[in-house]
Design a protein that fits this description.
The complex is a heterodimer of chains A (about 525) and B (about 270).
Chain A lengths: L1 H12 L15 H5 L20 E2 L13 E7 L11 E3 L2 E6 L3 E6 L5 E6 L18 E3 L2 E5 L4 E6 L5 E6 L14 E3 L2 E5 L10 E6 L5 E6 L29 E3 L4 E5 L21 E6 L5 E6 L15 E5 L2 E7 L4 E6 L5 E6 L6 E4 L5 E3 L10 E3 L13 E3 L4 E8 L2 E5 L13 E5 L7 E7 L6 E6 L8 E4 L3 E5 L4 E6 L5 E6 L9 E5 L2 E8 L2 E6 L2
Parallel strand pairs in A: 1-32
Antiparallel strand pairs in A: 2-38, 3-4, 4-5, 5-6, 7-8, 8-9, 9-10, 11-12, 12-13, 13-14, 15-16, 16-17, 17-18, 19-20, 20-21, 21-22, 23-24, 25-28, 26-27, 27-30, 28-29, 30-31, 32-33, 33-34, 34-35, 36-37, 37-38
Chain B lengths: L1 H12 L8 H14 L1 H4 L23 H10 L20 H14 L11 H9 L9 E2 L2 E2 L9 H4 L2 H9 L22 E6 L4 E9 L3 E6 L4 E5 L3 E7 L14 H15 L2
Antiparallel strand pairs in B: 1-2, 3-4, 3-7, 4-5, 5-6
Helix pairs in contact in B: 1-4, 2-5, 6-9, 8-9
Chain lengths: ~525, ~270
C-alpha cells in the first residue's frame, strides 16, 4: 500500500474527481498565515489565528441544514470527556483523546491511518479529567502536550515520535491539556496546574528540534515588574496557568495568551495583592516571549474564575479589537494594540461586582469573598462560561458563546502547600438558591454588549461553538445533541442525537468539494454532511 | 490503582493514629470540606448524593479501619469514588484520610437528637393510609411514578426526608443520571398537549432540547417529540402532594421516616 501511495497522487491527480491529495504538501507558516485561502482545511485549534472559529464554507446553509446526515463515527475507546477540536489538512483529520491519544483519520470515511498513545506514569496530576484539547500542525509534524508535561512532535504520516521534550515536573502538578499554537517556526504552549500551586508559564519550542526558545512565567519573579502584587513567597506557588489556546496577530507580531486562577484558587489569605498575571490576557512578542501589555480581568481572584477563554480578534469601525467572554460573567472588548479596555458588559447572572473602576473594569464587592461558613456568589466556580470555545461570525457581526447561570456557595478552608498535592484552599457547592442551573447559547453584539438572541438548553452544556458562512451556528448539548442554528436568529434548524454529552467544540472542513462538520461527543468523533 | 490498594491494605491493619486528636480533627474538617462535602454536605450532615456521616450507625463502614478502606477504595456500585480517581490528581495522603476520620468521629451524634419513630407503624402507613406506596416503591413493592425509596433512608438525613414530604417542590428529587452528563434529570412536572389535543401530565423521566419522556399518574409512559406537540410546559411544582401536618401528623411522619431509615440501613 505504502509503496503504491507515492505514485497514486500522480496518476489520479489528472482524474481529480474522488482523489484526495495525500497530505504531501507541508503545512508551512505561510499556509497558517493565509488559512483563509484554504477554507477546506482547519489548520489550528480555532480554525485560524483570529480565534473566531468561523468557517468560510457555505455549502451547508440555512436552507439545506435540516437535511444534514451523519457521515461517519470514529470510536476513540477513551473514557471521560473528549474536549478536543480536530485539525484537517488535505483530507486527513488529526485529533486527540483522553490519556494523550492522538490519531489521524481519512476525513471522508473516519478510517484511521495511524494511532499514537503517550505512555503516562501512574501518578500524573490532572486537575479536571485526563483530557486533551487538540494538536497543532506545522511542516510534517503534529504537536501534542501531555498530562505529564511533555511536548511531543509526531510525524503526520505515521504518528512516529520525532521529538519528545519534558517541559516541567509533573510530580509538582504541571501538565498540558491545551492544543498548542504553531506560529512561524514555534510551537507555543501553556501549562496547566492551577490546582496544584504551580508557577504558570507559556513556552515556545522550535518546531524542528524541540529546543525551547523562550518561556514567559505568568507569575513574575523577584525584581520583575508585577512581583510586588504577591504577598511574601506566595508567588512561588501562585498558579496562573495558561491552559487554553491563544491567538496570534501577524500585524503586530503578538501572541495573545490568556491565563488562569491564582493559587490557591478560592482562598486569598496569604496572597494579598492583585496577583499578576493571573486571570489576565497577555500580549507577548512572538519572537522573544517578552510581554508588551497585559490586562487583568479579575484581580486577586478568590472564585476560580480562570480567564483562559479564547481571546477573539475582531475588527469594528476601523478598530482592531480583541474580545473575550470571561468566566467571571463579563464580556470584555480591548484595543489589541494597547490592551486598553473599551467595554465590559455582563452576559450572565452576576452578583460579585456592582461597580466599575475609572478604566471601566468591573470591581469586586468585598462581600463576594468566600467565607469560612460559605455564602452564595454568582457566577459559580465553573463560571458563566469556561473552556468551551466561542465563535465570531464576521457576516452577522455576532459573538456566540456557551453560557450558564449557576451560583455556588463559596467556603474557604486553609490548606498547606505540598508539592504535587491539590492546593485549592477551598470548597464550593452548588447553591440551591439558584436552582435550576440554566444553560444557553448566547449571541452577543460586541459593539454594544447587547445579547441579540439566546437559545436555552435543557441543562447547561460544555460544548463550544462553530459559526459558518452558511449562516449557521453549530453547538452541542449536555444531552448529546449536535445542533445547527440560524446564526441570525438562534432558531434550531437541525439536530442529531450522538449518545453522549458534548465537551468539545465543532469545526468544519471539506474534502472533494463536500463540506463536513465534525465534533466529539461521548467517546467518539462524528462527521456530518449533506446526503 | 495498585498504589491505592496497597495503601488501603496497610491502613486497614492500623488503628487511627490520630484518634481523638483535636488538631487532627480540625485539619480533617478542612480536608473534608475540600474532598467530601460536595456530596456529604458541610458539617458531614449529608447532601444531595452522600449520606449523613454524623450518624453513629453507618451502612458501609463501622471501624476506623473500615472507614479508611471506604475512603481509599470507594464503594463499588455507588457514587462513592476511590481516593484519587476523580480525575483530580493523586488524592489524599494516608495522614489526611486519618484526619478526616478523626473529624467524622468528632461530629458523630452518639444518641439521635430525636427519638426514632415506630418503624412497624411507619411501614403500615407507607403502604396504607399515607398512600406513599401509590407512587413510591420500596423493596420491590409499590408504585412507579415517584422515586424508588429503598435506599433513601441510608443516603438522606431524617430532616431531608421530612422536608421532601412537607415541601416536595423545594428540592426536586433526582432521577436518571447519565454517565457523561453533568446534571441528573429531576422529577419535574411536564404538561404536554399533543397535536390531536390530548393533554398529558406526568413526571419527566428524561428530557433534552427536542424530546421528552414522561410517566403519568397511571404509570403510562409517553415518548414525545417537542416539535410535534401543540404545547409543552415544564414546572418545578412536584406532582407529589404536599403532606401538611393536618393530613400526616409529625408523629406518623416520624414513623414513616423510621421505617425508611431502617430499610435504608439494611
Amino acid at each position: 500500500m505504502r509503496g503504491r501511495g507515492f505514485r497514486a497522487p500522480l496518476v489520479f491527480a489528472f482524474c481529480g474527481v474522488w482523489f484526495v491529495s495525500m497530505a504531501s504538501a507541508q503545512v508551512t507558516p505561510e499556509r497558517l498565515l493565509n488559512s483563509a485561502k484554504e477554507p477546506q482545511n482547519w489548520l489550528t485549534y480555532s480554525g485560524d489565528y483570529s480565534g473566531r472559529r468561523f468557517s468560510p464554507l457555505d455549502q451547508v446553509n440555512t436552507t439545506n441544514a435540516p437535511s444534514l446526515v451523519a457521515k461517519w463515527v470514529y470510536q476513540t475507546a477513551a473514557t471521560g470527556k473528549l474536549e478536543s477540536t480536530p485539525l484537517v489538512v488535505d483530507g486527513v483529520l488529526y485529533d486527540t483523546a483522553q490519556d494523550d491519544r492522538a490519531f489521524a483519520l481519512d476525513a471522508r470515511t473516519g478510517r484511521p491511518i495511524w494511532m499514537y498513545q503517550h505512555q503516562l506514569p501512574g501518578d500524573i496530576r490532572p486537575c479536571c479529567g485526563r483530557v486533551n484539547r487538540g494538536l497543532a500542525i506545522l511542516g510534517d509534524k503534529v504537536f501534542l502536550g501531555t498530562l505529564d508535561a511533555h511536548v511531543i512532535a509526531l510525524d503526520t504520516k505515521t504518528g512516529n515520535v520525532i521529538w519528545d521534550v519534558v517541559a516541567a515536573e509533573y510530580q509538582k502538578g504541571y501538565s498540558f491539556t491545551v492544543a498548542p499554537l504553531a506560529v512561524k517556526n514555534l510551537i507555543v504552549i501553556g501549562a496547566s496546574g492551577g490546582e496544584y500551586g504551580v508557577r504558570g508559564f507559556v513556552d515556545a519550542y522550535d518546531a524542528s528540534t524541540g529546543e525551547r526558545r523562550w518561556r514567559f512565567y505568568t507569575v513574575p519573579g523577584p525584581d520583575e515588574p508585577g512581583h510586588e502584587t504577591w504577598e511574601g513567597d506566595s508567588w512561588k506557588t501562585g498558579g496562573a496557568p495558561a491552559w487554553n489556546t491563544g491567538t496570534y496577530d501577524p500585524a503586530t507580531n503578538q501572541i495573545f495568551w490568556p491565563t488562569g486562577n491564582p493559587a490557591p484558587s478560592n482562598r486569598g489569605e496569604g496572597r494579598a495583592g492583585d496577583n499578576l498575571y493571573s486571570n489576565s490576557l497577555l500580549a507577548l512578542n512572538t519572537d522573544t516571549g517578552k510581554m508588551n501589555w497585559y490586562f487583568q480581568f479579575t484581580k486577586h481572584d478568590e472564585h476560580d474564575w480562570d480567564a483562559t477563554q479564547v481571546p477573539v480578534m475582531i475588527e469594528s469601525g476601523g478598530k482592531h479589537l480583541i474580545a473575550q467572554a470571561n468566566r467571571n460573567g463579563f464580556f470584555y472588548v480591548l484595543d489589541r494594540a494597547t490592551g486598553k479596555l473599551i467595554a465590559a458588559n455582563g452576559y450572565g447572572k452576576i452578583t460579585w461586582s456592582d461597580s466599575k473602576d475609572a478604566e471601566g473594569r468591573p470591581v469586586a464587592r468585598k462581600e463576594a469573598s468566600p467565607t469560612l461558613e460559605g455564602h452564595t456568589v454568582c457566577p459559580g466556580a465553573l463560571g458563566t462560561t469556561n473552556f468551551m470555545a466561542p465563535a465570531f461570525n464576521p457576516r452577522t457581526s455576532l459573538f456566540y458563546v456557551t453560557a450558564r447561570d449557576q451560583c455556588d456557595i463559596f467556603s474557604t478552608a486553609p490548606q498547606p502547600y505540598e508539592a504535587g498535592h491539590a492546593y485549592y484552599g477551598s470548597a464550593y457547592f452548588p447553591s440551591e438558591e439558584a436552582e435550576p442551573y440554566r444553560g444557553f447559547l448566547k449571541a452577543i453584539d460586541p459593539a454594544t454588549g447587547e445579547i441579540k438572541w439566546k437559545f436555552e438548553h435543557t441543562s447547561p452544556t460544555w460544548s463550544g461553538v462553530l459559526s459558518t458562512a452558511g449562516g449557521l451556528v453549530f453547538t452541542g448539548d449536555a444531552e448529546g445533541n449536535f445542533i445547527a442554528l440560524d446564526a441570525a436568529t438562534g432558531k434550531a434548524l437541525w439536530h442529531f442525537q450522538m449518545g453522549g454529552a458534548v465537551y468539545a467544540a465543532p469545526m468544519a472542513f471539506a474534502v472533494d468539494g463536500k463540506e463536513y462538520v465534525a465534533i466529539a461527543a461521548g467517546s467518539a468523533v462524528y462527521a456530518f454532511g449533506l446526503p | 490503582m495498585a498504589l491505592a490498594g496497597a495503601t488501603a491494605a496497610r491502613g486497614a491493619d492500623d488503628r487511627n493514629p490520630l484518634a481523638g486528636d483535636p488538631k487532627a480533627a480540625k485539619a480533617g474538617e478542612f480536608e473534608f470540606r475540600i474532598n467530601c462535602a460536595l456530596c456529604h454536605g458541610l458539617g458531614a450532615h449529608g447532601g444531595g448524593r452522600g449520606p449523613d456521616l454524623t450518624r453513629a450507625q453507618k451502612k458501609h463502614a463501622h471501624s476506623d479501619a473500615e472507614l479508611f478502606q471506604v475512603i481509599s477504595n470507594g464503594i463499588a456500585g455507588t457514587a462513592m469514588p476511590a481516593n484519587g480517581t476523580n480525575g483530580q490528581g493523586v488524592g489524599m495522603t494516608d495522614e489526611e484520610i486519618w484526619q478526616i476520620i478523626t473529624y467524622i468521629r468528632s461530629v458523630e451524634v452518639k444518641a439521635p437528637a430525636h427519638p426514632m419513630g415506630n418503624a412497624a407503624h411507619g411501614k403500615e402507613l407507607f403502604y396504607g393510609d399515607a398512600n406513599c406506596s401509590l407512587c413510591h416503591m420500596v423493596e420491590g413493592k409499590g408504585g412507579r411514578v415517584g422515586p424508588e425509596l429503598t435506599a433513601v433512608g441510608g443516603s438522606r438525613t431524617r430532616e431531608a426526608i421530612i422536608d421532601s414530604v412537607r415541601n416536595p417542590s423545594r428540592r426536586l428529587a433526582w432521577g436518571l443520571t447519565e454517565s457523561t452528563k453533568e446534571f441528573p434529570q429531576e422529577y419535574e412536572t411536564i404538561t404536554a398537549v399533543t397535536a390531536d389535543g390530548k393533554e398529558i401530565k406526568g413526571a419527566a423521566l428524561n428530557e433534552d432540547n427536542f424530546s421528552v419522556q414522561i410517566i403519568d399518574a397511571s404509570e403510562q409512559i409517553y415518548l414525545l417529540e417537542k416539535d410535534k406537540l401543540r404545547s409543552f410546559k415544564k414546572s418545578r411544582e412536584s406532582m407529589m402532594p404536599i403532606y401538611k401536618p393536618d393530613v400526616l401528623s409529625d408523629k406518623d411522619l416520624d414513623d414513616i421516616v423510621a421505617y425508611l431509615i431502617g430499610v435504608g440501613a439494611k
